[in-house]
Design brief:
The protein has a domain of about 160 residues: Four Helix Bundle (Hemerythrin (Met), subunit A) (Up-down Bundle). Helices cover about 70% and strands about 10% of the residues. The protein contains 10 helices and 4 strands. The strands form 2 sheets. It has a two-stranded antiparallel ribbon. Strands 3-4 form a two-stranded antiparallel ribbon. The N and C termini lie far apart (about 65 Å).
């Protein structure tokens, strides 16, 4: 009897251990996708970098979903999730933006100095450093999200993963044939500066944005979510993967309309 009880306790311990780590497994996948995205963006493989960020955002949805479903939410999971998002939704789009600045023609410069009789040389483009304001803005956004109880069922400011998907989709958007007419405008470094600053502002402004988290069974409360879903298939049919930034813009517009009407 004691042996059976010990075996049962061991089994329950293993089950609980697996349950607690299911959300962390998806967070780890998000983290790794972010690392791959940074590397691919550095190598100018923008389509592959976009796919990694998209997969990272997909895994990011499931870690919170399973944490709530299995009732294993924890402070560790919250902090680990933010660290993963900082890579996937912060550093990766920052690297893509830096590379887009270089593609726009901004010049690089060399900086050399001697420290303790060792010479250090850095090559960088000063204008392109604006792109790294995106990971800074994402870090501030994620830190605020962790301590803001008002964002349980709706967002205050653009979520970092949505902002990241918009930024990493810009190279795809620039190559789309339907948008060839606006390519010179979008590819200029002045426009990239505006997009970078605007993305930081949108992530951290206290603008109420609806989410897809379920807080009641009243379908009327989710009318704007249904409207957004109606745009998904037509947008993907017309623009393929470029539909992602288009849908994010529609999401912002619908949220602004909802706020003005309410």
């Amino acid at each position: 009897m004691p042996l059976q009880l010990l075996s049962c306790q061991k089994y329950l311990f293993q089950v609980n251990l697996i349950k607690r780590n299911v959300p962390n497994f998806f967070t780890a996948l998000n983290f790794l996708c972010g690392c791959f995205a940074v590397y691919l963006a550095f190598k100018n493989l923008f389509e592959a970098a976009f796919l990694m960020v998209f997969l990272g955002a997909f895994f990011d949805l499931f870690d919170g979903f399973f944490a709530r479903l299995l009732r294993v939410e924890s402070q560790f999971g919250l902090q680990f999730d933010s660290m993963a998002d900082l890579i996937t939704s912060g550093l990766a789009p920052g690297m893509v933006m830096y590379k887009l600045f270089l593609e726009s023609g901004v010049r690089e410069m060399d900086l050399s100095f001697i420290l303790l009789r060792s010479e250090f040389t850095f090559s960088f483009a000063p204008y392109a450093l604006v792109g790294f304001l995106i990971p800074l803005g994402a870090g501030i956004r994620l830190a605020n999200f962790n301590i803001d109880s008002e964002q349980r069922f709706e967002f205050r400011g653009l979520p970092a993963p949505a902002n990241a998907l918009f930024i990493v989709a810009l190279p795809l958007l620039l190559e789309h044939p339907l948008l060839a007419g606006v390519h010179p405008f979008l590819a200029s470094y002045q426009t990239l500066i505006v997009i970078s600053l605007l993305s930081v502002l949108l992530m951290n402004i206290r603008l109420p944005l609806f989410s897809f988290k379920i807080k009641s069974l009243n379908l009327r409360e989710y009318s704007y979510q249904f409207i957004l879903l109606l745009f998904v298939l037509p947008c993907f049919y017309l623009f393929q993967w470029v539909a992602v930034p288009v849908l994010i813009v529609i999401y912002l517009i619908l949220s602004i309309i909802r706020n003005s009407l309410s």
